[in-house]
Amino acid sequence: MTLLEPDDPATSSGYADHPERMGFFTDTSVCIGCKACEVACKEWNHVPEDLLGFTGMSFDNTAGLGANTWRHVAFVEQPRRLGRQESGLVAADLPAGTVEAARDRTPASLGLPSHDGATGSASDMEFRWLMASDVCKHCTHAACLDVCPTGSLFRTEFGTVVVQEDICNGCGYCVPACPYGVIAKREDDGRVWKCTLCYDRLTVGQEPACAKSCPTDSIQFGELGELRERAARRVEQLHEAGVESARLYGHDPGDGVGGTGAFFLLLDEPEVYGLPPDPVVTTRDLPAMWRHVAVAATALLTVAAAVTWGSRT
Amino acid sequence: MPTKEQVLRLLSRGHDYAEIAELLGIPAGQAYLIATGVAADGGDTVTRAQRDRAGMLPSRSQRLVNPREVSPSARGDVHEWIRRRAWGDSPMQAAAEAGS
Amino acid sequence: MNPLDRLRSWPVLRQLADTDPLGRGAAVKSSGSRALQPRTATADRVVKSICPYCAVGCAQNVYVKDEKVVQVEGDPDSPVSRGRLCPKGAASLQLTTGSGRLHKVLYRPPYGRDWQELDLDRALDMVADRIIATRRDTWEWESAGRRTARTLGIAALGGATLDNEENYLIKKLLTALGVVQIENQARVCHSSTVVALGTSFGRGGATTFMQDLQHSDCIVIEGSNFAEAHPVGFQWVMEAKARGAVVIHVDPRFTRTSALADLHVPIRAGTDVAFIGGIINHVLSNDLYFREFVVNYTNATTLINEDYRDTEDLDGLFSGFDPGTGHYDFDTWQYEGMRAVPVSGERDVDHERRTRGGASIRRSGHGETHGSGGPSLEGTPHTDPTMRDPRCVLQILKRHYARYTPEMVERTCGIPQDLFAQVCRHLVENSGPERTAEFVYAVGWTQHTDGSQFIRAACVLQLLLGNMGRPGGGIQALRGHANIQGSSDIPTLFNLLPGYIPMPHAHQHENIDDFLRADAAHKGFWADMPAYLVSLLKAWWGPAARPDNEFCFGHLPRLTGGHSTYDTVMEQLKGVCKGYLLFGENPAVGSANAKMQRLGMANLDWLVVRDFSLIESATWWQDGPEIETGELKTEDIGTEVFFFPAAAHTEKTGSFTNTNRMVQWHYQAVEPEGEARSDLWFLYHLGRVIRRKLSGSQDPMDAPILDLTWDYPTEGSLGEPVAEAVLAEVNGWDATGRPLSAYTELKDDGSTACGCWIYCGIYAGGVNQAARRKPAEEQNWIAGEWAWSWPANRRLLYNRASADPEGRPWSARKALVWWDAAEGRWTGYDVPDFPPDKAPGYRPAEDATGSDALSGTDPFIMQADGKGWLYAPAGLVDGPLPTHYEPQDSPVANPLHGRQRSPARLVYAHEHNRYHPSGSEPGADVYPYVVTTYRLTEHFTAGGMSRNTPYLAELQPEMFCEVSPELAAERGLIHGGWATIITARNAIEARVLVTHRIAPLRGDGKVVHHIGLPFHWGPNGHVRGDAANELSSIILDPNSHIQEVKAMSADIRPGRRPRGPALVDLVRAYQRRAGITDHTGTEK
């Protein structure tokens, strides 16, 4: 059940005529962590508030994507240098005992640099603060779409993946299907919700609310092909500027989900941002599995038939 | 929805977006997005390559999307009121007389 | 739908019959999806507006359907914002339409336990009665034998979130009622800016505009957290960065701004003068200044009075200090051979007696009158063009900063020498004819006891480097509220009249001629002050203002010293000020020493609060912190409280002036609901009702209010005043009723009226220039046809300095304006900030006056000598040059001088305002850490517009403190846990965020730890917490009356704070341990 033309999901979803595929390129290297995207999205889509409370996860009190958060800004404080940036910070000068005791108390790593416990004079610290706005990937091979039994989840003319709330029956099959953990159910409502790439706005030529609002144009909206070209040039530019860690994520049509409609420029490994390093559309093996089922069923029937016929003769 | 080529073809024939919208039965802004790949409400952030594209409007593309805009900038009733204030101020009139 | 169509639309059939066999797209598109339309396109109309949050002034599109606002998003045409909005601007829909807002008037009777509803008209009537009664009871005709004609019994606070037209009516009405205690957020935020920039350059506002940042080669962001406090403006830093500019962020914390900077320099809070002084020393010692610029465009060559003594000579004092009064006499600071300047300055022999040595003027912050027009001078300066004379400004500067070596910077600021060297290198490399550097600052600089001097230091440096008046150069002052610039220009401030004309004093100015002679310069544009003042008086008192009664100059109440908001709090505590009106400001959270703010209000007879919801300043009597501690009891509080729900920016028409002096009009999209009304409505009808009640009165005290012109047209079912008419009055007209086009048309004979001379021209031709919205794509980067800026729509000030003395650009790369000899005019990309036809070669005659007295090479046209002031002989009461003093409460001894604190700072000794021992004073170690307060992107100032807006509140839901792992280890603080922070004023609790982003700083063999505190929380709202301002004291910069909240000492301990009386006990226990008395920290 994989799509026939990897990069043109709209055509393989039955649209004879349709526009160029549209998507997001989120360049996290210019993100200022302001969360305008989170708010603009909620305002446009009337998404309810989450109010999780103080999480202690740097400046991230939204925690992750979900039914009530369709754009989520991650904050990662790391003991690493970002290109040629000078943080001017100094490493913590902690007594050994304190560090050990602290480890016992704090089960989760919160990004503090690990120490070997030795004290010493303070030294210049490598430090960087990464910020990134995450969103539904609008995969080329979208597992949520594959498993949806009601046709609620569907591929639009723009190549995006949208939940049709007038159809969704809340079965929840799509929730575990997503390799990124994006789509989720609203408990008080019963249906699943996620980013629509502002489908309604696109129908009149308006860009998605988050892209429009983003103060530094970290979130860029446009034709996917053009965005991929722009992204490739940006990565080159960053490498030349000494930011070796810049790389793209989701841009490659050869990856496990066929490339994504919303792809990213990251400054570290995907895991650092809470993203799966090698996402695979969870329905990838379904055709093979069904074939096996078919073979097994055929074999079983053949054996059963043979036994039945055989016992008759 | 139409393809990019379909909209560009109509543009090359000299139609504007309002006409294209009529012909294709779609919103004018949608035609703009499809033709150019640029949103109609995108702001002054187009790249040089984008600016030279067929179908790009140099400015005010948001009007393809918005309903009517209400923003009056010169009110006649205010002008009247100013004149009443000035003419009713006899010391001011006297000073102007003396000065001229 | 007919049965056949219904069948055809069945997805299963579509799937089988059509091109989408797997049912993934076309076949399953539902009817809902097919009918999908965004509410932007289906709205009835779109109305143009401006964001009400910070001072970037992002343009907004407001969509209305069925007379309700259904969407608010960015307007892509704006050259400033390009359609973008930060999270706050993006939350405008919820802010204005959400359930956080109230729509009914509430009333609390004296000693009442709870609110009751009250009819709007009745409430307005009651407030009018209170004002009339209190005014009568507290009326003062004279003080110490001089006529004051005022009431100190009433005060007002608020205006930075209001429209210019609303501020205009507040100032006009209350002034006519004899109220002088009129203040707003500008006092506590950027008042230092007006003093410092005004004194150095001639105008007290940002010298450039945000879009011009893209042209800078080096941007130093210091005392500002640009990306967090002005996110949409920050896009222009990113543009510069994309073009290869170096971005440097100097801040005690590594913030979201630092994350995008090339270099972050951690600095000990409160030591910026030492840092900038170090750079100045580096530039001077190594002859790295832009010599031709400095010689021609600054006062570097001017000789100073031979009796001048520097802080280097007197261990931290300038000459002329009187420890008895705590004031400086400025005579020895003057230019050689020149007359004393207006602050102390009249030739009248009566002067000393009348002004008691000028104390009244000094106390009133006269420096702020240089918002538009620097201090005036009598005479001509003596100069040494070779700059070798030891008494020339350049040499004085060298000696003054000689000890600000890299070692001293390291000791004082905690900045390693190699880091310091990098900053110096970047700045020097990026200044000069071919390159420019820009400084961006905000309240990290203004909010200190010597905040004006912090900014002055950058002014000195930028003049030395030749960056003033040039593209990509200058000084960007980032103000923080939608209309805080406007509320300074059309000021709801006690010491100013519109256009930075000083409010007259009881002592110094007897009549209008004395006033004008004392304050008007004889050279420069300020020489036309008579025309500005008379035109203002004509606007306010119309036909009653005549030549034979000094145009009603006597109707203005007089000042007798400082009447700032903090002085008002003291007057409230003393029972002198009995009535208070709050207009969209929340002092119980936003002003220093929150407890004193509340105790002051508890002493009032009546309080009026206008806001969106019940802010802390409205409810303290019921559930404030003192109720919890038992210091106050609700049933013992006699304050009568009125709460009036206010209209949102989408519900009224008016203008906001952004941080770059650009005035933008916003239109009413819908009418306010329920009893919510605009402040324009409230002020206008309040004035109408008061005048009705007083009509026929023969009492001379009522003449100003009855003579006042107060007849604006109204419209609509609610009787909303027409804002454009108020704007027209601000603009002014002549006797024919023609709106004026420029302030040069103003006359001093009473034939013109003008409510604010620097805004003259905003309604030129009867067209609202502030409403212009020509898209960015249709203009150059200056975008002069979008809205309107003062002065005269110039966007980049002092731009004459972008050309050399001959009028040629210093380089092609940095061309902005230049002299066109063929045309005989200045021309270029921006409106020249210079007389258009004054040739570079023009030299004034000996007896020239006014602007004719300035030459063709005097770019700072609002300065009396036309020069940028490296050394300020006037305008600042605490010194002509910035020097480093420690903050009032500091754990560090001043490494530079024997004088620990700024000698001229304003001290307010009070049992609830105790200061800490500092430096090497015994007990300083009881408060060993440095607290610095700041903003977060997600919230807005005192929280009234964000804590009740769920989409914002959930992003930063709890008050927290940021501490380094070292400090956490030292004090046993646990990440995610709680901490209590204590000062001599109060103690608060906060969640703990342990982070490396707050570096411990090492200097002088000592480690200094910072505690970072956001200041947005208070006990009310959707999300709650303790207010950082519980901890701060009232200790003020003497020039601007601004409080010091950016650096103070404190202790921190793990765990939640005590509740009830135990909280007070904790604070007192600390005071005892530190040996604090009522004298601690009050030395002069």
Give the CA-CA distance, first to last residue of chain B.
70 Å
Taken in chain order, the helices and strands of chain B follow as HHHHEHH
Principal-axes geometry of chain B comes out as: elongated
Number of beta strands of chain C:
39
CATH uppermost class of one domain in chain C: Alpha Beta
Output the structural class of chain B. mainly alpha
Shape of chain C: globular
Structural class label of chain C: alpha/beta
Q: Which second-level CATH architecture of one domain in chain C applies?
A: 3-Layer(aba) Sandwich
How many β strands of chain B by DSSP? 1
Of all chain pairs, the largest interface belongs to:
A-C, 86 and 89 residues
List keywords for this structure.
heterotrimer; A: 313 residues; alpha+beta; Alpha-Beta Plaits; four-stranded mixed sheet; two-stranded antiparallel ribbon; 26% helix; C: 1084 residues; N-terminal domain of TfIIb; Rossmann fold; six-stranded mixed sheet; globular; Asp_de-COase-like_dom_sf (chain C); iron (chain C)
In short:
The complex is a heterotrimer of chains A (313), B (100) and C (1084). By secondary structure, chain B is mainly alpha-helical.
Structure description:
The complex is a heterotrimer of chains A (about 325), B (about 100) and C (about 1100). In chain A, about 25% of the residues lie in helices and about 15% in strands. In chain A, a hairpin with a 6-residue loop joins strand 6 (about 185) and strand 7. By secondary structure, chain A is α+β, with helices and mostly antiparallel strands. Chain A folds into two domains: about 10-90 and about 125-280, 2-Layer Sandwich (Alpha-Beta Plaits), CATH 3.30.70.20; about 285-315. A four-stranded mixed sheet of chain A has the order 8-1-10-9. Chain A has a two-stranded antiparallel sheet with strand order 2-3. Chain A has a two-stranded antiparallel sheet with strand order 4-5. Chain B has a domain at about 5-65. The longest helix of chain B has 12 residues, at about 75-85. Chain B is mainly alpha-helical. Chain C is an alpha/beta fold and about 1100 residues long. In chain C, strands 4, 5, 6, 7, 8, 18, 19 and 20 form an eight-stranded mixed sheet that branches. In chain C, strands 32-34-33-39-31-37 form a six-stranded mixed sheet. In chain C, strands 11-10-9-14-15 form a five-stranded parallel sheet. Chains in contact: A-B, A-C, B-C. At the A-C interface, helix 1, helix 2, strand 3, helix 5 and helix 6 of A face helix 3, strand 3, helix 4, strand 11 and helix 32 of C. Strand 1 of chain B pairs parallel with strand 1 (about 45-50) of chain C, so a sheet runs across the interface.
